[in-house]
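hi!! sorry for the late reply, been swamped w classes. u asked for the two structures so here they r. pasted raw, havent cleaned anything up. first the sequence of the first protein and right below it the tokens
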Amino acid sequence: MQRLSLKHFENFPEGNHEIVLNHYDDFKMHKDIIDRIGQLGYTLTPSKLTYQINIALHGEEKRNVRLFGNNTENFFMYYFPLMFDRSHELHPDVPEKKIPLMVFVTVSPEAATELYNTINTFVRSMKIHVVLSHQGRKMEMNTREMRTPFHILVTTVSNLHHHVTKGLIRFDNCFYLVLVNIGLWKKSIDYVNLTNEMIKCGWDPVNKCSVIATSETLDDTTKEVYSYFSFRKHYDFNIF
């Protein structure tokens, strides 16, 4: 499995796609997900960016996505309903033990907790099990909840390294890996070792698992960290 180590900026080719804003039905999205979007007060007409991200992730040439800007709430709504719906479509059964469908990785326990609460708010009315692993010292508090099947894992980059080296999770059915605010991640972390361990645990970043990376800016740290997870080409989206 070859790492592309891509750092360059690549805009989505808007001129190649005619996009007409309409309704989430355009994505053949599950009714419960569309209803939840409306219940949370969001418009049922997806943004142009959501259509573009859908093409990038699920089009003929599947690409990773990098999002840059400081509107974190909109970041989540641009991609999460698409990911949530596609994961349910590809794996509608009860999740297997230790094998999440989506993994969200943050730099800090505080960021993990905030994202965990955001995801739980969205899936509250659905039978979706979200697990939070953010304790750095009391690892038993993290692993206790991970002993039962779960759909979504929200964790820190340091805890992710612990979980893959200890064989606590597998990525065989992981369709999306979301790297949150990677501009704040430390360059000193051995990301090559981390991704190699993830691959040993079933992560397939070439044929199966899409990577979504978010950051406030496209700086050197962002480019460097993302490059270690770069096994596919990507498109960049600026959100101001």
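now the second protein. again sequence first, tokens right under
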Amino acid sequence: MNKDLAQTLAQRVERIKPSPTLAISARATELQAQGKKVINLSVGEPDFDTPQPIKDEAIRSLQAGHTKYTAVDGTKGLKQAVIQKFERDNGLHYQPNQILISCGAKHSFYNLFSALLNAGDEVIIPAPYWVSYPDMVKLCDAEPVIVKTDRSESFKMSPAKLAAAITNKTRIVILNSPSNPTGLAYTREELKALGDVILEHPAILIASDDIYEHNLWKHIPFVNIINACPALFDRCVVINGVSKAYAMTGWRIGYAAGPAKIIAAMKKVQSQSTSNPASLSQDAAQAALEGDQTCVSEMRDAYKARHDYLVAALQQIPGMICTPSDGTFYTFPSIEGLLNPSKGITNDVEFAEFLLNEADIAIVPGTAFGAPNHIRITYATSMDNLKEAVARLQHTLEKLTTR
């Protein structure tokens, strides 16, 4: 590229980096295409196919000619299905003008940040965090304020740490429960305590990332911060979608629910970027939310069985510390005890590269999530793959731990 042209790139683009999880998954796919038998435990998506009734509805929609633009904020049918979902699953009540359908939960976050953040505003993000939060904040010329947590706290932000992070520039607090990458969830009591802190600061909004709501087997039933602290209903935007619960990552449908004024501002942003999400995907998502929910519990039960196997196996590896998850399809062990400078493995990034090169296992280093010397392992794969991965891991780590 012409040097002068390259220098015209926006400064905000220089502040961000490509998604590391997507980059690692792409590299694993590339190696697989070259004939390597890589076990990809890096990608954050269900390995199940989208349930057949949902696919059948998309086919009917296509055959019925539902291939035109829809309203920017989504079809009436899908918005009503989302409203009914909130009532059924969460005991929360919204009006149509409080709902925005987007091209995935990530898109909902981008809409929210674009609608609310000005240069210099601050967004509080507990670490470990989903990789995209800080960079999306930076894209809006705002500042991510990282609140570090550790295993002794179950990787959860305490009220004291939250209070200490708040300044007169704080605009949003992000809460993700159960968490990507840790798989751990806040209890009702813990959320209530955080909510009490936020209630003391009327200008702060909460972004509640509930995308793993249905991938939960501890601290059930699921609660978000509004359930725990109802006084925050008008100060919270709940973001969710169909990707994780219904194995619909490629359909790209998310949704946000919150104060009508904020949803209207997010809709305005969306109207000048993507406009409406795909019409066929919206019809499929409506079928998912309105249909038989047995598929959701069946997938959750499968994740739980895989989780139990994997965590038990990892806990047997000397030098690795692995806390059982409450949900999602991730585990987040510490590998600090496995680092070996004499073998050139001094941090989690080098450890991840070592596993990919020596064991053909793709995982994500914890540095990507703001937690160095950890790794995120996805068990959204078959039990056979997990057993093979554990066997490779045990064999390969023998090389690493031999001093």
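hope this helps!! also noticed smth abt the second:
The chain has a mean pLDDT of 96.
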